[in-house]
Amino acid sequence: MDSSIDFIVVAIFFAIIFIIGFGERKKLTLEDYWVNARKTKKWIIVATVASTYLGVGSIIANAGVAFSGGGLATFVLMTSFFLYFFIFSKFFAPKIKEFGDKYNAYTLPDFLEHRYSRRTRIVGLFVNLLTYGFWLSLQILGIGIFVSSVSNIDPTLATLIGGAIVVAYTAIGGLRADIRTDVFQFLVMLVLMFIFLPIIFIKSGGTEAIFQLPASFLTGQEFAPWYIFLLGFLVLGASVIVSADLWQRAYAGDSAKNVRWAFKVASVIVFLFLVGGTLMGVLGQAVVPSATENTVIPELLKLYVPPLAFGLILAGFFAAIMSSADSILLLMSMTLVHDVYQKTLNKNLTPEQALRASRWTTFVLGALAVVLAVTVFNVVHLAIDAVSFLVALLPAVVFGFYWRKATEPAAFWSAVLGLLTVIAVLPFAPIYAFIPGILVSFLVFFAVNKFTRKPEHQPLD
After folding, report:
1. Exposed site from 94, 145, 173, 205, fewest CB < 10 Å?
2. If you ran DSSP here, which 8-state letter would residue 276 be given?
């Protein structure tokens, strides 16, 4: 394979991202930096939601689950994400937009404080930082791991360049630059999905190759018992409802109506990518069984994609990784500056000071992530761990919107004990930790709510 051609294609992709991102460096207000002035149009929301949500965890790790024994049963888990994505678009995204406009909110912890209390907000921001710290590491690490698997391009160099570009345009341009680059990255990802992945599917033998695999593999028995897939379908996708990056996109929309529509469309696009990732993982077991869960997609690409086209596909995967990384980086920065510094340590912080602090925080966090990426090449369980932490906030958010009798102690203790349960179980059963976590969170919520007084804060209208 002529890696020089692929390198040129990827270099052009990086250059375009750099130019688009830096084009948003001037005349930014804090509203622009954090929520794109709350004026994002519906088709732009579709692009930025899809490209943000689809990253290493949702494509490469998804293929890894299918390859490792999940087989076609992995579709059950992917359908869960689609189902809850649709629920989020209809019942939560519009309300989040309305809440953000009415109360000038920027983050999920803003909602937890308004609906419940300051201490519930603190638990929420801790969950966010923990979750997205794992998720950011996964995305940045994915750049180096993916490149080292598919070409002769030096992985350290690729990680440093890609990471530096993400950090630079995110730190300078905030969400406005993030959204502009997301649109371009989304277009590259569409080419990947609808042109190249079908070619790989056909050349690798397609359904004929898949159904030659053992029934125990196709039904997921080699990965987990059937009830794990059932429980996964019921609850795993629910993490979408408390995904802070999706909340930020809802806040940034220009109207509740457009936000609802955009998230519905994005849910379909996300599902198609998840299906594609699953098929690649299953096909990998059929044609490159010597691969690993992290390298199954790269191995398929090397087998069936010629030079130049390979570089375009590589750019498509970089688009998926970078569009998630920049959003997560901005989200963590906003959480630290807005929820920790501005609302806890320095309540007199001016918008100009907050903007300056956000840029420096974004830069420092990004630099740390890049350093981690070039020193530790390991993404095992990071995606599952990140999703698992989020389930602790589900009862507080769901009932905060839709149950007037939900109390502050119930929200606080369900989040705390649900999170501690996940942390306790993760070292022993990382794949299953979300199950006891969500059960404890909901049981504690109902138990505490039954024996506590009416909520101190008024429910949302």
Report:
1. 205
2. H
Number of other CB atoms surrounding residue 195 within 10 Å: 13
Residue 294: CB atoms within 10 Å: 22
Query: CA-to-CA distance for 381 and 323, rounded, in angstroms?
Result: 21
- Rounded to whole angstroms, how far apart are CA atoms 182 and 184? 5
Average pLDDT score, the chain: 81
Given the structure tokens 């299906």, which residue do they identify? 275
| Distant-in-sequence, close-in-space partners of 102: CB < 8 Å, separation ≥ 6 | none
CB 269 within 8 A of CB 86: no
**Coil, strand, or helix at residue 26?**
coil
**Residue 129: which CATH number?**
1.20.1730.10
Structure tokens at 358: 């956000």
CB within 8 Å of 48: residues ≥ 6 apart? 40, 178, 179, 182, 183, 186, 249, 323, 327
Vertex 15 angle, CA 250 and 196, to 5°: 75
Domain enclosing residue 271, as ranges? 3-370
Number of domains in the chain: 1
pTM to 2 decimal places: 0.82
Going by C-alpha positions, the residue among 76, 72, 59, 135 that lies closest to residue 296 is 59
Residue 282's nearest CA partner among 191, 384, 200 is 200
Mind listing the pLDDT tens digit for each residue in 175-196? 777 777 777 778 777 777 777 7
330 in a structural domain: yes
**Helix, strand or coil, per DSSP, at residue 24:** coil
The Cα 394–Cα 410 span in angstroms is 12
Does residue 116 surpass a pLDDT of 90?
yes
